[in-house]
């Protein structure tokens, strides 16, 4: 029973110069449940994307039943018997369960383009029985609850995986993140059923789940596989330590430039509730960096958007400098002195087709206007100033932003808010994501500078280290609520494991 | 086996139980979720028939029913083809142009006063093929050249009009083919034969929708193109096919239009675009794709034709019809898309 | 036409970015020069030159001042519609109702001129502006795709102009002088075209010197990023629709001046030529890239091409086929495939 069904040897992958995965090797044995754990950005999802055929590794090989394989696509991987259960479900709501289970893989149930419904439904029912789900194959998928749809999703993965010659490998990407406790228990039953006929890779950021269901687990950090462990005999604290890793070199986060904020309360959020977050209360002082950390779906991105008027709020209030504000759009927030850097730089933050100058003055054109018209000379002069000050590497101000490197693009996006002398609050959603190390250090130094200038900064940190090192205070979010708050003075930073425990 | 059966029943009972039902809204919400049959549209049709029947005694007469069947036949055929395109999230605005072209083609190929052809039934097939050909141009432009369908089909609309104009050459061909003319003039069971042609197309459409890969994948592609592609479905091929099917339906509609008017004319397609689109939309086939079906569209067209017919009976100017149909398109789409509204949602 | 952040689109973006990085350097410099020339409308100007050259060789009376005058005059109404459409396309939308609206406003002007005199023009232009705002509001507020809103209103205005005109041609007898001056040719200069040119220059400088112009491009290029930059994107989109309808109204007035009459569908056929003008002028159908002046150039190209049909001796019945194929071909050639994520 110990033969290896599926494995990765020495896989590496870089995205735009950033190493997402480095020399990772894992083995999945027959009828074994493998756990993958790690923080955000540890490389779990990149590894999973390589396993499921979404990405190909730059280096390294994927072996299926001992044979090297190159998956060209998800569909290809599925035909070879490796099927992924996606986190954002891949079922179509508007067709029946049976159709979903065999979508694109109908086999003899569709003959010469014509459906043989009884056959299709019977086969679907068999797969559903195999995992102990009693959903009817005739049901239209949207009528099922999320948890039941997930069962169908597993049945689908089983069906596609079993269409190959070997026993299938089923990849589960954070399957428990939106399930209730009882539903998670059922899912675990399903995984135990699956184990009788398939290998399973289970990805989660919830430690206790991995320990409960997995036969073996791999711990990932910074794109590497740092440990392999046996859940039966592992020490939980040891696992946390493995996940958070080593100390970074001094100076990287410019911690010496952190000064205590003395400012008054600038932003007061009280009991803010909306779709995706609830009962959020905190104060943000002038000159303070407040880090918000949390796993995916913790609700912090939505909270950030709600603060700038880009997502709706159902109750609670936001007070800016003692006056209650209610933003109906980001434009309202910008006029009140907010700046916001969205998490997706390429799609939401930067306008690649506009020039550096146009991007820089887009949010506050009034800074480069004489009367009602834009002044080219004023604009060029202001932009040249900022390009200088932030050391933005660009051939000229009239270069399209898209031809700059990621780090320089991000500096321009930041500078867009800095041109406004009335800037009060800056909300940064993972501003260093996808940047190389040098660019990250530049952004950190800039954030310090802004804080010292009295701007209140809310930082959605990309990693735990970043959140702890950069902030005066750190709040953790879990399931849309604030789960803990830590003071974060230089030299007296909280333990990473302590923070991590409140996140996952 | 027995425990399994038991638990299955338990599951079914649970699904229909009160706890899950409550979260799904009231009776109306539940009824309108039965998607196989367009219940809201049928209710609207019934209401309209009752209102017009009460308002005007001639509305429910046999003669008017015949007129309704006659007026519905062509848009119903158009709507069947259009449904598959819209189910996939595309749109076909070319119907008037394709009807114009194929009306002219069919008139010139049967016995007529301008040419010496008398191809009979072959003329019908050739017209359908011409329609399918124009549809293929549109479909390939959308899928291979990646141009939005509404632009492409405005283009093929004009191409169809152009073909009709070129064939027209200044004198409309008057049809002398008895067989073709009898489609519109003679009746079976008291109903014009054209209505039976339309009925046959509807039945064929329903069968295609339910039993064929093309029909089912129309829902798949409209429901989630990315998922379809991830599942290895050749989306471009099926989308192209949808435009070909729509073109073929328009081609048949062109023949029917020739039969009704007794001649080939560029204007034979006029007015059908709005009637069809308004019908499809009001029947509950969503322009965003994946929802609705042939039956929905047909009921929608019947609603639109009844409204038009009723308005004329009540004495409202026929010129206003296009305005009403246009407004209905906007209102119906607004109503169906309303719940998707969200801050910063980009809709172009 | 909803843009969704699908994982596949994102990956494609990443791949494109990586690819871009690999081939930097010289290629970039050439590209930059090409794009700069492109931004200044060199391509449509070249196309225009070539077509004019061919026609001049074919028929040497083509370059006579008389025929040029009438040609420019003919391009005026198309130019107005194209300018309006150009703004809407710049934001990534489309206005299918603008040609029909021009017919409708012409009918209204013809109806109102005898009783109201010159005031009729003001009334009709005010109404067109309101109509444009209404169409834009339905689009941005209800979040219904623009092609559906304007397809519906295309039907609405068609019906209304049929009703208003009772489907017959209205001849303007009284107060025709209030508009007839538009088509005067003082010293041989076609005033109608000069007016369009002045309007074009005004709009060009608006695009260049006002924040509005920059916001328009930002919205067309990336609406979400524009919104996160504090731009009220719906207002920008609204302004494009308002402008388009207002220019349709002006086109309606021009049409009365030119023909002294109006019927329910006099300008309907200009929808596709106007779209063709916009795309041949080099405004990207996906939005964000393009300009005002080049759209006018596009309208002149389309007019020259249709005059060319006559010169070469192709019957006018072939013209719709030409426009249909032309739009498809031009969009195919000009569409920026990296920016189109999903086409339905």
TrEMBL record, chain A:
The keyword Cell membrane applies. It comes from the Bacteria. Residues 6-247, 260-504 form the ABC transporter domain. The keyword Chaperone does not apply. Gene3D superfamilies: P-loop containing nucleotide triphosphate hydrolases. GO terms for molecular function: ATP binding. Keywords: ATP-binding, Cell membrane, Membrane, Nucleotide-binding, Repeat, Sugar transport, Translocase, Transport. This is Sugar ABC transporter ATP-binding protein.
Automatic annotation (TrEMBL), chain B:
It is found in: Cell membrane. InterPro entries: ABC_transp_permease. It comes from the Bacteria. The keyword Transcription regulation does not apply. Pfam families: BPD_transp_2. It is a multi-pass membrane protein. Keywords: Cell membrane, Membrane, Transmembrane, Transmembrane helix. Signal peptide: none annotated. The chain crosses the membrane at residues 39-62, 74-99, 119-142, 149-168, 188-208, 238-257, 269-287, 294-316, 322-340. This is ABC transporter permease.
